[in-house]
Every structure is written in C-alpha cells, then in structure tokens.
Design brief:
alpha+beta
C-alpha cells in the first residue's frame, strides 16, 4: 500500500487513458489488496523474477502483446521475449499505456481471439512431442548428521530435521523449486534454470546460519547444485 498521492500518480502513469472512475477503483484496489509489508515483499519479488532461461523451453502457441509507447516497460523487452520463444507471435499495439483502459480492451481482446483461432486451426492445442530442456538439480543435507544425532538423541534430532525440512520447503516455494524426494535429512529438488536454484541454495544456507544456534541447535547445512539437460 503506497502513500495515496504517490499511488495515484503511479496508477495514472501506467494507465493514462483510464477514466476517473477506473482510476478511483484501482486506487481502492491497491489500498485494500495488501499491507505495506506485503506490497514491499511483492515488489521485491517481482524485481527478482528472471524468465530468460525459461523462454526457449516454451512449446505452446504464445502471443506477446506490447504497447509501442508503454511507459513502464520498454518495447524492446517485449521484442526480446518474443524473439526467444520458439514460434511465438509478436504484436505491437499503438498506444502509450501499460494497462489498457476499458475503452481500449477491444483491441487486446481482438488480438487474443485471433491468436486462439489460429492456434486452434493449426492444431496448436495438441501437446507436442517432448523436447530436451534445461533443469537444475539441488541436493541439500545436514553436515555431520550422524554425529549430531548421537549428540542430540532421537527425539531432539527428529525436531531438528522437521525444522530443517520446513526451512527448505519455505525457500523452495519462494524460489519456485519442485521437491522431488527426501531421504533422512536430505532434500532433492529441481528448478527450471540455474538462477533460481542458486538463489534458493544461498537463501537456505543463510537461513540455516541465522537459525542454527537457536532453532537448529548448532547444526549446519550444505548443498550441491547440478545443471543438466534431458527430455
């Protein structure tokens, strides 16, 4: 939730052709949609999103729309994304907005309808044969777990492992990793590219270091990262 005057200016900058009623509705949406802390967290997360490693893996009919004079996102970014998605359709719309006003929605809807009809007529909805894709595999475990088990005992060790697993799962969810398996104190997870895997592994290491003395009773974690290709 932004300061009201800044929020209003921000909305108008990306939505210059909206009516006053639309602006008022969007201002209200922003005010009630999130707390200030949640808004900050969302903006921070959005700034960290990087889809470049995943673009080549997209194998469904894709339409990329971009307003030529978008005030928030430069048109070159739309061209970049479309140029790296195999078989994508790129359409530049005339206009100076990031969010289309109600009066401009028909232009967007017409392009969407055209794209869906073309995909349907070309059997684009049929799932293609799988292609080889890039994947990053993450392994984590607790260092010297046998010695820690002897030091802490079964009951305390189970508590430590549960806390460790909760910590890892929290970071996997945050960084869009997929939990594949667990074995004792170890985790096996996958990511769609190395960037998220590295950020997740670093976040896990930081969490373990910060919580180790109190919540994890002095245990330490380690991780191993591999990037592979496969079907």
């Amino acid at each position: 939730m932004l300061e009201p005057r800044y929020q209003d200016r921000s909305v108008r900058s990306g939505w210059p052709n909206a009516s006053e009623a639309e602006i008022a509705a969007m201002d209200q949406h922003y005010r009630y949609a999130a707390t200030p802390a949640a808004e900050t967290a969302l903006r921070t997360m959005n700034m960290g999103i990087d889809v470049r490693d995943a673009l080549q893996a997209i194998s469904v009919p894709t339409l990329v729309l971009h307003y030529v004079d978008d005030p928030w996102v430069d048109v070159e970014q739309g061209r970049y994304i479309a140029g790296r998605i195999p078989g994508s359709t790129y359409v530049e719309l005339p206009g100076n907005c990031h969010i289309p006003a109600f009066a401009e929605v028909d232009t967007v809807a017409n392009e969407l309808e055209r794209s869906l009809r073309d995909a349907w007529n070309a059997d684009g909805w049929i799932e293609p044969e799988p292609d080889r894709v890039l994947a990053t595999i993450l392994f984590t475990d607790i260092v010297d777990s046998t010695a820690d088990l002897s030091r802490l005992g079964d009951a305390d060790w189970r508590t430590i492992v549960e806390r460790h697993h909760a910590l890892v799962r929290r970071q996997l969810s945050r960084h869009r990793g997929r939990e594949l398996d667990t074995a004792g104190d170890g985790f096996f997870a996958a990511f769609d590219g190395p960037a998220r895997g590295i950020r997740c592994a670093s976040a896990i290491s930081q969490d373990v270091a910060e919580r180790g003395a109190h919540e994890l009773k002095g245990v330490a974690g380690e991780w191993h990262l591999f990037t592979v290709t496969g079907a």
